[in-house]
Amino acid sequence: MSQPPRALAPDDDDDDSGAPVPAQRAKPKKRLKKRPIDRVAHLPLEIAGIVVFALGVLTVLALVSYSSADTAAGHVGKVHNWIGPGGAVLADLLLLAFGAPGFLAPAALFVAGVACFRPIAQPRHALLRVAAGAGAALGAMTLLHLVARGTAALPFPAGGLVGAVVADAIAALIAPLGAGVVAVAAVFVGGVVALDRPLGPTARSIGDRVAELVLGARERLEVWREERRLLLEEEERLAREIMAAEPSLPPAEVKRRAADEKAKKNEERKQRIFEEAERRAKERLAEAMEKRKVPLAPVGPSNPPVTAEAPRIVSTPSAPGTVVDSAPPAVEPDPPWVLEEPVVDGKVVSLARALESRAARKAAEAAEQADADDGSFRIVERAHVDPKAVEQAAAPVVAEPKTAFQLPPLNLLDYDAPAPTPLDELKMRAQADKLVAKFLDFGIEGRVREVRPGPVCTTYEFVPAPGIKVSKIAALADDIAMAMEAIHVRIVAPIPGKGAVGIEIPNETRETVYMKEIVADPAFGKRADKLMMALGKDIEGRPYYANLGEMPHVLISGTTGSGKSVSVNAMICSMLYRATPEDVRFLMIDPKMLELSIYDGIPHLLLPPIIDSKKAAIALKWAVNEMERRYQLMSELGVRDIAGFNARALAAAEDRDDEARKLLTDAFNKGCGAVMGGPSPMAKHPLDKLPFIVVVVDEYADLLAVAGKDVEGYVMRLAQKARAAGIHVMLATQRPSVDVITGVIKANFPVRMGFRLASSHDSKTIINRPGAEKLLGKGDMLFMPPGTSNVLRVHGAFISEKELHRVVEFLKAQGKARYDLSILDTPTDDGAGAAGEALDEPKDARYDEAVAVVARTRKCSTSWLQRMMNLGYQRAARIVDRMEREGLVGPAQNAKGDRDIYLKPDGTPPA
Prior knowledge:
The protein is 46% helix and 9% strand. By secondary structure, the protein is an alpha/beta fold.
């Protein structure tokens, strides 16, 4: 403890000589005697303190239980105040006189009571603080009166009568606004003097505390976000490890085990983080205290309390150089201070975690920036398929165990394992440097963060500098292709879920994606879905599959040479590798007569591949009727989809569901097997399961050109409703123009595959964005999965004609095709049911008039009838087509559309 300063004589400060003061000039030292406290004289003050303290308690109770009804005029009855009538009067007087600040009266009494127990060393200073407090209270009363003037929110004046008098007096001189300024100033000045605390340091202390709270909350939020991200990554990693260790586990069990393992590791990690944070917090506190030399705890007993009055420094006039010694009695020297073990609470640990998290992030950013500075990047190892596993793999066993049908073996497919080639890191680094340099030519700064080689393309993840627009990068595809000497370059700006732009550059040597290595993948064989299709490999070389049942329909488009037809065959073949004819039936429409004719004769077909466009329209109408029939059956059975129907039908066939047996038998007898006219080939027995029906249309544009736009109505109805009925549509076309792929078709085909197309306009028609025109062909596609608008680049699987012939011959050997040609006899709504009739349009209102005109004039063509009857071209064409179907006129004979007239002159049809 330092010694108190000594009082110097007036001339002591002016002595600049620096010479020591002569000892003979000092007067003899005088020591001040301690004044003993007179306990007897102090006793009345202590009694007064007790009385004042008790009065404060009574005032608190009176104010807390105040009710304006207790002192109202004419009040008779029970007094609500806890102190009785006296307390009611006391509270009423305080609030009436002082208003809301009257509630501070008990606090003033408590302070006065406590002061009676302590001797006041400086009475004048104490009186000044009391006066300042009264001034602050008066300012508060004045301010409350000015603010709450004219309001009746309180049962007493807000500033009391005292505040009203003072406020009105000041307002009469300087207006209410000036009175408010004076009142605020009085509150602050009185508060500072009464509390004996400077306003500046107090405000800074409060601001520092608020800033500390805000910083702590922000740090805790950052810690929570970081922990949340780590937990999600840990859960995904654990799920992948469990799936790799035990692939046969169901997803629910995998999720449960991953959650248990994550919880266990989370507890261990929390304990580890807590211990590390506690250790580091202790180190930081020790370093801070050592630097600031702040004592924390003394060694040994502390100084005893001083009971005597503090010595006062007295300065008296004396000779120059005289020193008046007023040192107190000698006291023991202060004990040394040592640093105790700090106590670390939750806030310190939380802040420590936040600091650790922020430090880790900064370290990672620094490392990443260092990598960027030296031009390094990460090369991701691509996925590889084990050739031995492909050769030794067996066909996926997904057939029903009770059927005698055998699925095709994998040895029917060819596979030529690619030669293992190591990654050429030097070449990839050179390509990355060239890419960065080319972007710099266009004023785009950035760096390559990752390189992901694939079987067909290599993806370079480019991270642009801050402030670079992504659209500016996306517009440079052709320039980058020229700089990289590539056929086409596709830019994904940005990569979904990443802060980078993907530049896909074709490899010099393209790897063939064989059908066999996709079907032989263990994950493909474990899926029990009958409509699982092997699409190919993704951009990084991983096998990629899609379930047609989940799509539930797919729109496919690509130009000649894009690999569209080969990929369609691969999709069909992959379903043939998984499903028996009892599971899946196909209805194939091939107006080009080349692509699907190879499947003629397999037992999965409902009809031979249809090449006649008019018969194709009849088949589509039958598919709509079959859909309605299935909906009626499911409604009778009370199920929602084909899976529920087949489950109950199987239970009924095995005598496990008598209710389902009765319902199905009654529905069959009522004619549900012949809904929409005619028996259905799917309704041979009431307890038969319903197979999936896959409608494959290889060239939709040709079908529309010949059969008319009404085919779009059938396709639209199937796309809208057929999913629950187990009917799925694969629609392929080479010409994705807007008159072929209309908005109605696009709305009902959310899943689309875009192979290489002729223009960006065609790409936008199919996948709602450009990019398909930049593909490489030969199966390279952009796939839009179900439930998302993002696209994935997939390299389609290749299957040769020889492989297809081997698979088809194997299936034919299992049994003959069970065609039902009655499908083509589906009647139309006007009753003219024949194999050649495709449309069921209603009869035109002027049809009979047109027949009479043709019979009278003996001439008939679309343009001639349009002029004669003042009709639209489409309406006249429909009338002429109907006359031809009914045998009244012959087919068109020349470019003018002239026809032979079979009608008799009186308008009667020919015999």
